[in-house]
Fold this protein.
Amino acid sequence: MTHILDTLPLTRLPAPGSYGRTGAPGVTVALREDVAAATLVARRGAGVRLADVVQARFGLTLSDGPRMAGDDALAVLGTGPGRWLTLAQTRPGLAAELASTLDGLAAVTDQSDANILFEINGPRVLDLLAKGATIDLDPEVFRPGDVAVTAIAHVGVTLWRPGEEIAYRALVARSFAPAFARFLIAGGAEYGIGWSRRG
Amino acid sequence: MRIPCPYCGARDAHEFAYLGDATVTRPDPAAPDAEDTFFDYVYLRDNPAGPHSEWWYHASGCRQWVRVARDTRTHAILGTELARKPAGDAA
Ligand SMILES: [Zn+2]
C-alpha cells in the first residue's frame, strides 16, 4: 500500500497525489514553501516595550506562553520565554520589516528558507498524529491557538492549531521534511492521504 | 516519565537532555586549592535516595534549562522552575 516509500529517495519529498487507501482521504497534507518566517528574541529588559510596539504596529498581542496570535497573513507564535516565531504569507520582506520596526527591542533572524510548512487536515488527522506525537492533542486540551515546540516521530516540529477546526500546522526544518513526510505517509496510509504542494 | 516544563507544560522525558546535580557549583579554577575542589566537584557526588535537585535541558521544546526536583526512588516530579528569568521580562 505504501509502495511510494519503497522507491522514493530518502532525501526527496513525495510528489502531489493520493497515497494509501483509496476513496475520500482521511488526511490531507499541503506543503507550503511560500511562507516568510522570522524569529524574534526579546532583548534583555525590552520585553514590555517590544510587546507594546508589536501591538501598535501589527495589532498582535505577544503571548508569554506557547500560544499564537494573528492569522495566515501574519501570525506570531510563542516558542520559548522571550522568543517568538513570526509567519507571513503575504510579506516576503517580513524579516527586514521586523528588524527595522523592532530595532533595539528584539533580535530578528530570517528563517524563511529554513523550514517547510505542513498543513495537516482531515477527519483522521488526530489518529495519524497520535502515532508520532508524545503530547496530548485532545481537542479539549490542545485548544485553538495553542502552540507546541515538540518532536513528532523523533522529528523536531513547531506544531499549532490555528482555529476551532481539528486541523494543524507543523513547521519542520527543511532537511528533516522528507523524514516527516515519510512518517505522514506511512502512518496515514490506512486512512488514505491526499498530498499537495503550494507555493 | 513526564516533566512539567514551566513554559511548555507536561512533556515526555525524551524531549530533555539530562545534565545532573543542580546543587553543586563549579569551583574557581584559579583558586590555590583548585585541584582538590575540582576532584570533589567532578568525582565526589552524593547519590541521594529521595528528593533531588537536577538540571534538565528542554532540547526538543523551548530550549531552556529547567531545575527539576525529582524523587530518585519514584521518579515523582516535585516541582520545576526555569533556570533563568526570560530576557524579555514581563512580555
Ligand atoms: Zn519547555
Remarks:
- Chain B has a mean pLDDT of 93.
- Residues B 5, 7-8, 58, 61-62, 64 surround zinc ion (CB under 6 Å).
- Chain B has one helix and six strands.
- Residues 30 and 37 of chain B are 11 Å apart (CA to CA).
